[in-house]
Amino acid sequence: MSPAPANWDEVAPVLDDGWILHLGVVGGDGLATSLPMLYVRDGNDLLLHGGVGNATLRSVLESGRAAGTVTLVDALIVARSAFQSSLAYRSVVVTGVVTVVDDGEKAAALERVTEGLLAGRAREARPMTTGEIRATVLLRLTVEDAVLRVNSPVVEDVPSDHGGPQWAGVIPIDVVAGLPVAAHDVVPTTPVPPSVRSWRPPRG
Fold first, then answer.
1. Residue 29: which domain range?
2. Phi and psi dihedrals of 3, rounded to 5?
3. Per the domain annotation, does 202 fall within a domain?
4. What pLDDT score does 204 carry?
């Protein structure tokens, strides 16, 4: 296993607060694209999964390397001028080596993904079939380098605007979950499982 980047203690909490990684890749046709993907952190690796027929993931595997971005939006910064207004955010750009999780580890790693996204769900859901496991490609992105960018929720008006008549401040932004809505064919007496009742979205 490769050593974690030197700034990992600062990067890991941001990755743990997020759950969507925009994976960048240049395909075989030479065109660049970006694919939003759910991810789960596993040490200094990120686990990504998709269908075996996904062309973008195939391109990533062919190159053996990948880059991705996780961005968390914390607040809108409203300054006295539009020019000074901004966004409070935390963002990480990761680069590293991509490998396929082999069949011997795949089932356990897929359970790690399920639990990482919805704690407790692996025990509640029916087991994955062999066909479902085979139809899923699971990638391990071992992070070798991570660039962290943080813009704090602070208004930075120019001195000449301080105390001016315009309002200035920040609008905090949070992600909240609504009440669970059952599928149309769920038996009415079926209780909402604990993993669903207790789920709260990450900060991202």
1. 8-197
2. -65, 150
3. no
4. 54
Domain count, the chain: 1
Which residues, at least 6 apart from 31, have a Cβ–Cβ distance to it below 8 Å?
none
For residue 29, is pLDDT > 80?
no
List pLDDT tens digits, range 110-150: 999 999 999 999 999 999 999 999 899 999 999 999 999 99
List 73's β-bridge partners, or say none: 89
> Domain for residue 150, yes or no?
yes
pLDDT at 28 over 80: no
State the CATH number of the domain containing residue 123: 2.30.110.10
Closest by CA position to 154, among listed 53, 39, 46, 74? 74
Buried b (16+ CB within 10 A) or exposed e, 5-38: beebeebbebbeebbebebbbeeeeeeeeebebe
pLDDT given at position 1 = 60
